[in-house]
Amino acid sequence: MKTILIMRHGEAVPMQAMDEQRALTQRGVAQAHEMGWWLKTHYSPDALLVSPYIRAQQTAECVLTLNQVGFNETCKDVIPSGDAAFAIDYLETLISLHPQYNTWLIVAHMPIVSYLVDQLCPGKMPIFNTAAVAVIDYDEQAHKGCLLKVQSPLK
User: Fold this and answer.
1) pLDDT less than 70: residues of the chain
2) Is the pTM of this model over 0.90?
3) Do residues 135 and 3 touch, judged by C-beta distance below 8 A?
């Protein structure tokens, strides 16, 4: 069994022409730090996939200041308009290539975070608050997960 953590980025500035350039607000940074502590306390991720968009990168940076990971990759497949099925195929390939990592964190965006959960746990498609984390027990042999909870920041 593996643990897959799917995290939405923290609160970002309002929409603008270049969506990929939107940064976190101060509140978003605080949310990312809060959830970084929560992750460290409960799950200690050891592998990370993160969207190339600025707000996701900033969220991942906050998490990484508190959690040491052995694998860290920017992944263009987990952008808002990404294909969740393709992204999960890629994640499953990475899991098989790196069996030493047991807890995988994906930092991405709505709506793909919901679609990722649905790909792993059919019929489950939570709506994520900013910086929320879905916790999934994942059976890599069966290629199926069980959604345990979605944890949101208090801030």
Assistant:
1) none
2) yes
3) yes
